[in-house]
Amino acid sequence: FREVHALSEEDNLMISPLSTSYALGMTLNGAKGDTKGAFSQVLHFDGLTDQEVNESYQDLMSQLVNLDEKVEFSIANSIWYRLGYNVLEAFISTNQDYFDAAVEELDFTDPGAVDIINGWIEEKTNDKIRDMLDFIPGNAVMYLINAIYFNATWKYQFDAEDTFEDDFHLEEGGNFRCDFMQVEGSFNYTSQENFTAVELPYGDSAFSMVVLLPNAGVTIPELVEALDAESWDSWFGSSYSSYPANVQVQLPKFKYGFKDLLNDPLIELGLGVAFGGGADFSGIRSSGGLFISRVIHQTFIDVQEELSLIHI
Q1: What is the pLDDT of residue 252?
Q2: What is the DSSP string of 173-185?
Q3: Any idea of the CA torsion for 31, 36, 38, 42, to the nearest 10 degrees?
Q4: Would you tell me the crossing angle of helices 50-65 and 17-28 to the nearest 10 degrees?
């Protein structure tokens, strides 16, 4: 998130590490040599065998989609490769077995190929992620795609009758009129040096949204720079820093979409070898010559009084 925030020109950011990891995890099954090492380092899989990595993806997918019966959660993976392209069977079967990936051979020169792939994505995200692909380059031979759908009602719903219009204060100055939802109750809460935060649970509390509000004088970049695993654990992993409290929450209703390339952030994180001519994906096709050209990331979120919709 820090890398995307530093490099993206979009006003609002929404990324899914889970979705990105699943797409890269399928790709990892075709990586060899230094390219495989870079994947393992960026995805934090150093020291794990190929089977352990694949089983971790398989187990996580099974756990997440079944974790809360009150939450709609689906994870879908697919691989599309150019008609006539010789893909190693081991690569295909491994991703089918562990990622439950749908695999299709497709004529990329057909003008309708883009619509076919986009149609699969739209179906898996209930039509919220549309037009992911705008074109298929002449040298493209494969697309590895992950789609996530998350639809959940709040455990403690906001009453629509309590929604009110007020000013949302913009970071660069000025105000924007919008609808604020509000609810009062016992929520996990923390107050830190730079922000306050509240945790809003979904369904039976297996999933939640954590909302961070910067304190006066603290900028978004300053808060983002502090986001890492160690800080997160110190803020929310201890009962001493995060605790149940009676809180009145006033949260704007919002929805927006995000779309950007993750090439540069992933290169900055250490995956640069996979994007150039020195990449080794001989586990996909033994003759080599493959590299990653685009990592397209598109998301959509809609937060309302009754529920929250997230699509990746």
Answers
A1: 96
A2: S-EEEEEEEEEEE
A3: 80
A4: 140
Identity at 71, one-letter amino acid code: V
Gap between the Cα atoms of 185 and 92, Å rounded: 50
Inform me whether the pLDDT recorded for 194 exceeds 90.
Answer: yes
Phi/psi for 169 (5° steps) reads -90, 120
Q: Is the dihedral of CA 302, 305, 308, 309 positive or negative?
A: negative
| Mean pLDDT of all residues in 203-229 | 93
Q: Is the pLDDT of residue 96 over 80?
A: yes
Classify strands 142-153 and 243-252 as parallel, antiparallel or unpaired. Answer: unpaired
What was the pLDDT predicted at 283? Answer: 97
Q: What is the dihedral of CA 280, 285, 287, 293, to 10 degrees?
A: -50
Within 10 A of 101 (CB to CB), how many other CB atoms are there?
22
Angstrom distance (rounded) from CA 9 to CA 296? 15
Cα 127 to Cα 298: distance, rounded to the nearest angstrom:
13
Tell me the Ramachandran region of residue 174: left when phi exceeds 0, alpha when psi lies from -120 to 50, beta otherwise. Answer: left
Query: Which of 20, 32, 171, 164 has its CA nearest to residue 88?
Result: 32
Residues 6+ apart with CB under 8 A from 6: 265
Chain-centre distance of CA 183, in angstroms? 28
pLDDT at 240 over 70: no
**What is each CA distance from 178 to 45, 103, 135, 221, in whole angstroms?**
43, 44, 36, 24
Predicted structure pTM score: 0.94
Burial class from Cβ neighbours inside 10 Å (0-12, 13-18, 19+) for residue 209 reads: middle
What are the tens digits of pLDDT across the range 47-80? 999 999 999 999 999 999 999 999 999 999 999 9
Residue 239: per-residue pLDDT: 66
